[in-house]
């Protein structure tokens, strides 16, 4: 590798380059102790009759406040959800905040209140944390890291999809990314972030899920591709039942951004055996009437979209950062 | 309707006793065809090929090296998204930014006008065909300084036919370029042509109309995209272009200079012509480096002579996250599209 | 990147207008198109309207085409 290689924005984009960087980092950090699943959203420690689940996530976001939420809300939901999609009951959160000198205190308190709101809603307390302040210009406003622990009797893997399983989304996707993009590009939309804690709904439906993941960074594309690869199945999604609102489609078209790479912060995708699909959907629809089946797993490999015309095209892990394309 | 048109495409194609190459010359068509998986639905003798319709892809290496040199020379530069990542002899604009150069990616020239308020010596790297040229012309009249690589589209179509390297049986003509230039200019080209929109049904209908022209030996210009494209085009936008620009020798990747295909900034606006304003920096650039041969086959791919898969570096060393040529950078580039959708 | 669908003009102030794209409201410059009025559909490219647009779609073109060809 060339010595002058620099970290690019793509390395944090959640796509292929992020994955490559993670591989390199994990190639150095080889010690695992008794921990398992160290490449997943959360790591697992077997306690005998129960499993301890542990995860951490850093958050930077521009703008900090956006329709339906703020950086505090997504920092809380992100970590609660990383534990929940593994089938864990989240126990507590550690919260670290790095603040740029000169940041308005009222904004900080607003963020802390929204963290508290999610804590109440989900029943997951913030139990410890840290605060640092950097000199002006050394950081863009604020950075939040949340770490969380949970316990589970059985984990829901992200590689457990079996041929014939149906693929379910817990609601329409991409609204979080689109809300942020719209704020950044001065578009007015009626959309709000989809950010919310998922622990309660996954607790209710968890027994039916063969595999589960939340399509945050990299969106449906990155996450379904990863699940299909790890599960060694082929997945066919149906263009007729794609889980996107017309406003989300419009923004993705307006900015020329692949709709499948748009992130959600309060949704999950899951694989369910066909015989339980009715029961699972019935539960999920109590939480969100948009929950639906978007495709099915088959023997083979790759993820494909069956178009309205009956042709098939592959869905790939997003490459490159989400930038608007113009010409 | 789509199924019915598909059926007719197959029936008409069966009446044609040879292979038919239909070339689309608009990057958004390239992408739309791949996204809808249209190639897999075509009859065996109908081939949809990609031509020089991706503005990022046809931008000459010398121009990229010039703008990167300006950025590295301390001049703030703004341009449209994908252009940022096209590598050149001195790196890409993105890499110039990593090294500390002021480089802005923008969505509209109006953003460049805003950025200029805080960066008075800002240069906008103008690229694209008749679709984006009027906006650049508008911004120049509002005081923006521009390095123009804008191009006129029809000279490239004519050049392709004149070079005659590839048998092109018909053109799927661009939608937005045609919204500006109208349908009439295409009449100079003696080949089956259909102007069409970007939805799968638009493109299928265009293919059917082209096959009918070919089967009946009746080449003409037809307009499927009447909802946007009028025979006279958009006279106001055309007037805007020619207020500021005059045709010159455009420099195209893959073609070299095509007479009358470039849009040069007129003398009247030369104070905002970056090529003149920053001549002292540009004169010092070693453009022999731009002409160095690489394994990248973008030039031949743009001319429709090679498929991305026939390029020795395609998927081996040249990928969307580490592109060697512009056709892999742009989401509308033939290689990028093939990489993402080509399985 | 050509945008495949139009916006409906909801407000005009000089060169600037607000257009609604399937529920997304966005500022567009309308100085390149003659006689844009509120309620018009416009095709937009890189932040500028480039042409007014009628509602006719491929289906109607196809119908007209079939009629003309007698097929």
In brief:
The complex is a heterotrimer of chains A (327), B (343) and C (71). Chain B has helices at residues 2-15, 27-35, 55-58, 61-72, 93-98, 109-118, 133-141, 154-163, 176-181, 200-215, 235-244, 274-277, 279-283, 298-302, 326-329, 334-341, and strands at 20-24, 46-50, 77-80, 103-106, 123-126, 145-148, 170-173, 193-195, 221-223, 245-252, 256-265.
Q: How would you describe the overall organization of this protein?
A:
The complex is a heterotrimer of chains A (327), B (343) and C (71). Chain A is of the alpha+beta class. Chain A folds into two domains: 32-152, 60s Ribosomal Protein L30, Chain: A; 166-314, Phosphoribosyl-aminoimidazole Synthetase, Chain A, domain 2, CATH 3.90.650. Chain A has helices at 16-28, 71-84, 105-122, 175-184, 199-205, 219-231, 246-255, 277-287, and strands at 35-36, 43-46, 51-59, 65-66, 69-70, 89-100, 126-134, 142-152, 166-169, 209-213, 234-238, 269-272, 292-298, 302-306, 312-314. In chain A, strands 10-12-9-13-11-14-15 form a seven-stranded mixed sheet. In chain A, helix 2 (71-84) packs parallel to helix 3 and helix 2 runs parallel beside helix 5 (199-205). Chain A starts with 15 loop residues before the first helix and ends in a 13-residue tail after the last strand. The mean pLDDT of chain A is 92. Chain B folds into two domains: 1-296, 3-Layer(aba) Sandwich (Rossmann fold), CATH 3.40.50; 298-341, no CATH class. Chain B is built from 16 helices and eleven strands. In chain B, helix 1 (2-15) packs parallel to helix 10 (200-215), helix 2 runs parallel beside helix 16 (334-341) and helix 7 packs across helix 11. In chain B, strand 1, helix 2 and strand 2 form a beta-alpha-beta unit. Chain B is globular, with a radius of gyration of 20 Å. Chain B is an alpha/beta fold and 343 residues long. The longest helix of chain B is centred in the middle third of the chain and has 16 residues, at 200-215. Chain C is an alpha+beta fold and 71 residues long. Chain C has a single domain, classed as SH3 type barrels (Roll), CATH 2.30.30.140. Chain C is 17% helix and 42% strand. The mean pLDDT of chain C is 87. Chains in contact: A-B, A-C, B-C.
């Amino acid at each position: 590798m060339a010595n002058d290689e620099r970290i690019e924005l793509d390395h944090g984009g959640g796509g292929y380059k992020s994955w490559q960087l993670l591989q390199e980092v994990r190639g150095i950090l080889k010690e695992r102790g008794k921990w398992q699943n160290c490449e997943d959203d959360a790591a697992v420690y077997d306690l005998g009759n129960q499993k301890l689940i542990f995860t951490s996530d850093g958050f930077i976001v521009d703008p900090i406040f956006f329709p339906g939420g703020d950086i505090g809300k997504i920092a809380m939901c992100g970590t609660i959800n990383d534990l929940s999609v593994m089938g864990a009951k989240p126990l507590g959160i550690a919260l670290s905040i790095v603040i740029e000198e000169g940041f308005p205190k009222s904004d900080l308190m607003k963020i802390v209140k929204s963290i508290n709101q999610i804590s109440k809603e989900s029943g997951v307390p913030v139990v410890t944390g840290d605060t640092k302040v950097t000199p002006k210009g050394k950081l863009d406003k604020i950075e939040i890291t949340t770490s969380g622990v949970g316990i589970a009797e059985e984990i829901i893997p992200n590689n457990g999809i079996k041929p014939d399983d149906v693929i379910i989304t817990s609601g329409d996707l991409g609204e979080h990314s689109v809300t942020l993009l719209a704020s950044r590009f001065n578009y007015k939309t009626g959309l709000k972030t989809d950010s919310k804690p998922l622990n309660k709904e996954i607790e209710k439906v968890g027994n039916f899920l063969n595999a589960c993941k939340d399509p945050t960074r990299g969106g449906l594309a990155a996450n379904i591709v990863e699940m299909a690869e790890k599960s060694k199945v082929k997945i066919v999604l149906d263009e007729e039942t794609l889980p996107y609102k017309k406003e989300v489609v419009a923004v993705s078209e307006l900015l020329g951004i692949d709709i499948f790479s748009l992130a959600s912060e309060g949704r999950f995708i899951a694989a369910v055996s066909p015989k339980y699909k009715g029961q699972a959907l019935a539960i999920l629809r109590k939480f969100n009437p948009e929950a639906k089946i978007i495709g099915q797993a088959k023997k083979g490999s790759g993820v494909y979209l069956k178009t309205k015309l009956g042709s098939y095209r592959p869905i790939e892990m997003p490459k490159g950062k989400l930038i608007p394309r113009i010409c | 309707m789509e199924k019915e048109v598909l059926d007719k495409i197959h029936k008409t194609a069966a009446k044609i006793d040879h292979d038919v190459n239909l070339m689309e010359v608009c990057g958004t068509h390239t992408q739309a065809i791949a996204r809808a998986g249209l190639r897999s639905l075509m009859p065996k003798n109908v081939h949809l090929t990609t031509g020089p319709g991706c503005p990022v892809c046809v931008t000459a290496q010398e121009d990229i090296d010039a703008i990167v040199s300006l950025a590295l020379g301390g001049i703030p530069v703004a341009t449209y998204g994908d252009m940022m990542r096209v590598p050149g002899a001195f790196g890409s604009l993105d890499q110039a930014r990593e090294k500390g150069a002021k480089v802005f990616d923008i969505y509209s020239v109006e953003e460049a006008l805003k950025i200029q308020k805080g960066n008075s010596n800002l240069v906008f790297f103008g690229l694209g065909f008749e679709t984006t040229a009027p906006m650049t012309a508008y911004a120049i009249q509002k005081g923006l300084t521009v390095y123009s690589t804008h191009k006129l589209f029809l000279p490239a179509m004519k050049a392709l036919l004149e070079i005659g390297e590839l048998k092109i049986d018909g053109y799927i003509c661009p939608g937005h370029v045609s919204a500006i230039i109208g349908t009439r200019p295409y009449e100079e080209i003696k080949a089956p042509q259909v102007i069409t929109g970007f939805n799968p049904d638009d493109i299928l209908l265009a293919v059917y109309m082209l096959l009918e022209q070919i089967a009946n030996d009746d080449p003409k210009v037809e307009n499927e995209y009447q909802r946007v494209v009028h025979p006279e085009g958009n006279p106001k936008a055309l007037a805007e272009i020619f207020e500021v620009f005059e045709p010159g020798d455009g420099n195209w990747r893959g073609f070299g200079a095509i007479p009358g295909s470039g849009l040069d900034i007129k003398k009247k606006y030369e104070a905002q012509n970056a090529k003149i304003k920053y001549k002292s920096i540009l004169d010092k650039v070693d453009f022999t480096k731009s002409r160095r041969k690489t394994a990248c086959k973008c030039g031949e791919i743009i001319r429709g002579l090679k498929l991305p898969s026939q390029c020795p570096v395609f998927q081996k060393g040249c990928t969307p996250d580490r592109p060697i040529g512009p056709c892999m950078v742009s989401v509308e580039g033939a290689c990028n599209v093939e990489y993402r959708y080509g399985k | 990147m050509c945008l495949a669908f139009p916006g409906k003009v909801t407000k005009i102030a000089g060169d600037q207008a607000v257009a609604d794209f399937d529920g997304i409201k966005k500022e567009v410059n309308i100085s390149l198109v003659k006689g844009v009025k509120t309620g018009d559909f416009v095709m937009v490219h890189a932040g500028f309207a480039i042409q007014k647009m009628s509602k006719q779609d491929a289906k109607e073109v196809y119908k007209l085409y079939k009629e003309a060809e007698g097929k």
